[in-house]
Amino acid sequence: MIKEFEERAYDNRALQGVSLQGEDICRKEFSNCKFISCNFNECAFKSSLFIDCEFIRCNLSNIKVDHCSFRGVAFNDCKLVNVSFAVINPFLLSWVFKGCKIEFCNFGGLKMKHSKFVESVIRGTDFINVDLEGADFKGSDLRDTKFHNAVLKKADFAGARNYYIDPTANKLKKARFSAPEVLSLLAAFNIIVE
Questions:
Q1: Is 152 exposed, middle or buried (0-12, 13-18, 19+ CB in 10 A)?
Q2: Where are the beta strands (DSSP E) in 52-183?
Q3: What are the φ and ψ backbone dihedral angles of 4, each rounded to 5 degrees?
Q4: How far is CA 31 from the centre of its chain?
Q5: Pairing between β-strand 34-36 and β-strand 14-16 as defined by DSSP bridges
Q6: What's the pLDDT at 1?
Q7: Is it the case that residue 4 has pLDDT exceeding 70?
Q8: Stretch 182-193: mean pLDDT
Q9: What is the spatial distance between Cα 52 and Cα 48, in angstroms, rounded to a whole number?
Q10: For the chain, what is the radius of gyration of the CA atoms?
Q11: Cα(93)–Cα(63) distance, rounded to whole angstroms?
Q12: Which pick of 47, 79, 135, 177 has the fewest CB atoms within 10 Å?
């Protein structure tokens, strides 16, 4: 274990520019902590708790988050590739992703009401059997992202692009879309729009 994480609990700490690739950071508690330009690639955060923390310009690719808790966590300009969030602890889940690169991640089965995924590149990611009621996807690129059996009521897709959402396989009541991208909702019907 590296010296940065020898303790069990951390409060009001800031960590900047540290490379912790592949480290075991399991069963730790972080409260009001800030991580800036850190490399967490392939780190194990299993059973850790993050409360009111912020990740800024961090690489969080291939992290292991089994039973990890995120409460009031912000990810800004972060890279998250190949992360299975489907195995996190969903209790009091609350997070925001802004300007992030989220690729090949899995959010399946989570209740993420009012989550924010704004101005992000979200590619090849699964939102299957999720509750995203009131979620915000404004300005995000959703190429090859899969929504299936998702609750998207009152979700905001204004300015979002490259999405494919089948209205017959998802709940879209009062969801917000902008033109001309909203026409992609017709793709599921195999019709021609001129």
A1: buried
A2: 54-56, 69-76, 79-81, 89-98, 101-103, 116-118, 121-123, 126-128, 146-148
A3: -60, -25
A4: 19
A5: parallel
A6: 40
A7: no
A8: 70
A9: 13
A10: 17
A11: 18
A12: 47
